[in-house]
Design brief:
single chain; 10 helices; 7 strands
């Protein structure tokens, strides 16, 4: 009898888990298709009139970008997928039957929690590195495809400005696109100054690559105040910047995969650079399973309450509000942790832990009075 009950409980848990998997996966894929469509239309609008901006190339750029964009949507996909799963079980009276058979709320929430945590682990260890690789390929496909207001990259917010020093004097570098963590730049403009701080020349180049103590510029045009423009196929501009310093100054943490982040953090610290942003990104990825578990618990709180009291509108509104609160907390934590105001560990883990504690507290109140 005990063995039969155990097998029945396992079968029921697997059944519930698969319902949640399909609900979350379906919502995730639907959202992916919508984001791809809107992103494709936006890129087509922004590249209209640009040489080489064919439909296939733009579609490939968008397709390779979407996986990293979807990382931001994953917590909401889990939240609303879990709500849909609980609502489906409730509407078919399967939760009622399970309760009548003596299954507690914690027993039919457990499969959903396991699904959420497993998705979080897979998202961190497999999906994130793959999304970063695909995003890098997207950047390579898009390399050189830009206009005055275009920026296809997630690594930066707007165009890049960087002040640097070198053997020949100081310079200010401006670029429209970056690759390889900031070691390759496209659409480059350099304003150089002598040791007395006087302007000497403006250099415009198609591409710049960071070599040993110098930026190697391709297809460069030199403008001075005393002569006609001069074109060079290649040109070297000295710099004291190291790859670690360029990465810290330009590259966004999201452009580095989960397994590479510890190495980048260590390199930044050895170079004497602050590693707040990379530490925060690493801790945020580590905390993702906890955040997804919090989403599942909040979905259970909202769904169980609605299943008893009725009101689909309240269900949707409650889910949106709960997800919005956690999103705001996560973004606030990123801002504080990225600036070094609070420790990255606390900034990354606090929203997920808060959500889990809040969900458990509400469930205890609803179920155990």
């Amino acid at each position: 009898m005990i063995g039969t009950a155990s097998r029945t409980g396992t079968t029921l848990a697997v059944y519930f888990a698969m319902r949640f998997v399909w609900a979350i996966l379906g919502l995730f894929l639907l959202t992916t298709a919508l984001i791809f469509l809107f992103d494709l239309l936006e890129l087509l609008r922004r590249t209209s009139g640009e040489a080489g901006a064919g439909l296939f190339r733009v579609a490939l750029i968008s397709l390779l970008r979407v996986p990293q964009l979807m990382e931001q949507v994953l917590p909401f996909a889990v939240l609303f997928g879990a709500i849909a799963g609980f609502l489906g079980l409730s509407r078919k009276l399967e939760l009622v039957v399970a309760r009548a058979a003596g299954v507690s709320v914690w027993q039919f929430i457990a499969p959903a929690l396991i699904v959420g945590i497993t998705i979080g682990l897979l998202a961190v260890t497999l999906y994130n590195p793959l999304a970063v690789v695909l995003r890098d390929q997207s950047d390579r496909v898009a390399a050189g495809l830009f206009g005055r207001e275009q920026n296809f990259l997630l690594q930066t917010t707007g165009e890049i400005w960087l002040r640097q020093d070198g053997a020949d004097g100081e310079s200010v570098l401006h670029a429209k696109q970056i690759l390889d963590g900031g070691e390759r730049l496209f659409g480059v403009t350099l304003f150089t100054f002598d040791r007395q701080g006087s302007f000497t020349r403006r250099i415009e180049a198609t591409e710049a690559r960071l070599a040993d103590r110098a930026w190697q510029l391709d297809d460069a045009t030199i403008y001075t105040t005393t002569g006609d423009p001069e074109h060079r196929d290649t040109l070297a501009v000295s710099t004291y910047l190291t790859p670690a310093e360029v990465r810290e100054s330009i590259a966004a943490p999201e452009s580095i995969g989960f397994w590479d982040l510890p190495r980048v953090i260590e390199l930044s610290r050895r170079a004497g650079l602050p590693a707040y942003r990379y530490s925060l990104q690493y801790q945020t990825l580590l905390a993702r399973p906890v955040l997804l578990a919090a989403m599942v618990l909040i979905a259970a709180c909202v769904s169980l309450r609605v299943s008893r009291m009725g009101g689909l509108g309240g269900l949707i509104l409650g889910g949106i509000l709960a997800g919005f609160v956690l999103y705001v907390l996560s973004e606030l934590g990123k801002d504080l942790g990225g600036a070094g105001i609070v420790p990255p560990f606390l900034a990354a883990w606090a929203p997920g832990v808060f959500g889990v504690l809040m969900g458990i507290t509400i469930l205890l109140h609803l179920e155990d009075g």
